[in-house]
Amino acid sequence: MVNPREAIYGGAVPREIFMEDAINTSRNRYIALSVLCAGIFLAAIDQTVVVTVLPRIIDDLEGGFSPAGVERAGWIITAYLFGFAVVLPLMGRVADLYGHRRTYGLAMVIFALGSLLCAFSDSLYALVGFRALQAVGGGAMVPIAMAVVGHNFPAGKRALALGIIGASGEAGGVLGPLYGSLIGQYIGWRAIFYLNIPLVLVIVWLLWRYVDESKRYKVAIDYRSAALMALGLGLTTLGVSGGREAGWYGFGLPLVGLGLALIIAFIFSDLRSEHPLVNFQLFSNRSFASANIAHFLVGIALITALVQVPSFAYSSGWPASSYSDPMTGGLLLIRLTLMIPAGAIVGGLLCGRVGGRLPAVFGFVLSAFGLWRMSLWDADVGAMRQTLDLLIAGFGFGLVIAPISLAVVNSVKRRRMASASAVLTTSRIIGMMVGLAALNSWGISKFQQAQEADPAPVPRRGMSVTEYLEELKLWEHHSVETILGVLSDFFLIAAVVCVIAIIPSLLLFRKDSEPY
User: Fold this and answer.
1) DSSP state, 215?
2) CA distance 340 to 471
3) Closest Cα partner for 375 from 501, 495, 497, 500?
4) Max Cα separation, the chain?
5) pLDDT truncated to tens, each residue of the chain (516 aa)?
6) Residue in 511, 298, 259, 277 with CA at minimum distance from that of residue 407
7) CATH level 3 topology of 279-516
8) Distance CA 293, CA 212 (A)
9) Distance (Å, rounded) from C-alpha 393 to C-alpha 495?
10) Do 488 and 376 form a contact (C-beta atoms < 8 A)?
């Protein structure tokens, strides 16, 4: 068969034409990658976008701000993390089976549908369910993009492309709280979800224009293991989060027990599968296992900071007007989140000079120190003290990103890098789910016990209005102190988690851990 280019040039094609084709192909790859990363960035924004508007959501959907509403509102974040965790190990293979562009487009449609339903939600429970649906679409984008890189980028350029995908997710998570506070402050929390629709339409148009459909591969997908994992994680988290309100013995403990049993069944099913959803043999490598444990602990500590820093901003201003101002929490939290990418860059540079273990240990020490200082905040803490403590904690969280990721990449062979990276991301998300559910339940329980011991004053016979208002003011002051005390405990627990994470970080890059 005659090559059309050879027919045009009457023989061999000039070298500069080959070079032009190579440049165009490379450019097209990165244009396609940019489109995919735009969707990942949008989905990552929605992972943290609600943390600064939770009080307004509770006030709107629950008819007022209450501790019980705070506990249920935690599921707005947890449900999104759950959807991400469920689809991350699965959707790369689904995309191989049905086509990358087609599956990515479907994921965008599911994300848009979930966003629209979130905007129309008239109860917290409905919003939680639709957030999970939204996350199924959002979580599917990362493994699909990783599959596209694996099939379309040459081996020498895959690491850079995977790094761009990871950076898109991190950037979205960093900017999500500030974006949410801006939209919530000036337009309303429902607009956060409405605005996703036109953005999705633009990305889908770019997808069909610049991303070619892939070849479809005959791959086996273990749907049984996927169902066991989803049910196990869902029931365990639901039991932990709802046990306090619905009753531990009749609801919480039975659900946790059933969930753990299903997780064990999932592990056995996956170990026996010819095409495992999560390759548990990867954990036989000590460096890989240590990195995932460290990342799980990062998830617990990080979600605690992301949720409780805005809560501190609202609570310390209560009952003043700043209590319902999303910008207060957003501007406070951005001091932490902006330092995460800065720390990640420094951590990457240090890995090349001194190895990965020292930056990981130093990062956890810094984050623990910053969180410990945050646990000492009171209602009169100054802005400079807050800024310094948040910068320290955020920089520490950033420092550990590169060492943990590098440890995973170095601990597996090239053909397993994509699946190993998906497992690492899932470890952090599961840590965030567990941390948010457990700490929320514990914190609300502690606050309500304190409120029962010090109930709100009621007017008594012979009491003047002035006397009653004085008692009410004193009770409000005690309530704020109670809330800040609970938040202080949250930050202290997160600091302890970071100290514990130093142990697995010392086991990273072990010489006795051969790549699997």
Assistant:
1) P
2) 44
3) 495
4) 109
5) 444 444 444 445 454 443 444 444 666 788 888 899 999 999 989 888 887 787 788 778 776 555 555 666 678 888 888 888 888 777 777 877 788 888 899 999 999 999 999 999 888 888 988 998 998 898 888 878 877 877 777 766 666 676 677 778 878 887 888 888 888 888 888 999 999 999 999 999 999 988 877 677 677 778 888 888 888 888 887 777 666 666 666 667 888 889 889 989 988 888 888 777 777 777 888 888 898 999 999 999 998 888 888 878 776 654 444 444 667 777 788 888 888 888 888 888 888 788 778 889 999 999 999 999 999 988 788 889 999 999 999 999 988 888 888 887 777 776 666 667 778 888 888 888 888 877 777 777 776 676 666 666 666 676 676 766 676 677 666 666 777 788 888 899 999 999 999 999 998 876 655 556
6) 511
7) Growth Hormone; Chain: A; (1.20.1250)
8) 37
9) 9
10) yes
Give the number of residues written for the chain.
Answer: 516
Rg, the chain, Cα only: 25
Distance CA 91, CA 46 (A): 19
Residues in Cβ contact with 245 at an 8 Å cutoff, skipping those fewer than 6 apart: 68, 71, 72
Distance CA 332, CA 268 (A): 45
Name the CATH code of domain 22-220 (choices 1.10.10.10, 1.20.1250.20, 3.90.1170.40, 3.40.190.10).
1.20.1250.20
| Domain ranges across the chain | 22-220, 222-274, 279-516
Contacts of 168 (CB under 8 A, 6+ apart): 37, 38, 40, 41, 44
From residue 502, give the alpha-carbon distance in Å to each of 77, 286, 294, 498.
27, 15, 8, 7
Amino acid identity of residue 6, one-letter, is: E
In the block, tokens 């689809």 appear at 87
Which single residue is written with the structure tokens 């010489």?
511
**Which H or E run contains 233?**
helix 223-246
Task: Tell me 322's DSSP state.
Answer: G
Neighbours of 182 (CB within 10 A): 16
C-alpha closest to that of 141 among 196, 93, 79, 91: 91
Q: What is the dihedral of CA 433, 47, 372, 55, to 10 degrees?
A: -100
The amino acid present at 360, given as its one-letter code, is A
**Amino acid at residue number 465:** V
Cis peptide leading into residue 319 (ω within 30°): yes
Rounded distance, CA 339 to CA 174, Å? 9
CA angle 451, 457, 462 (to 5 degrees): 165
Q: Hey, how many other C-beta atoms are within 10 angstroms of the C-beta on 22?
A: 10
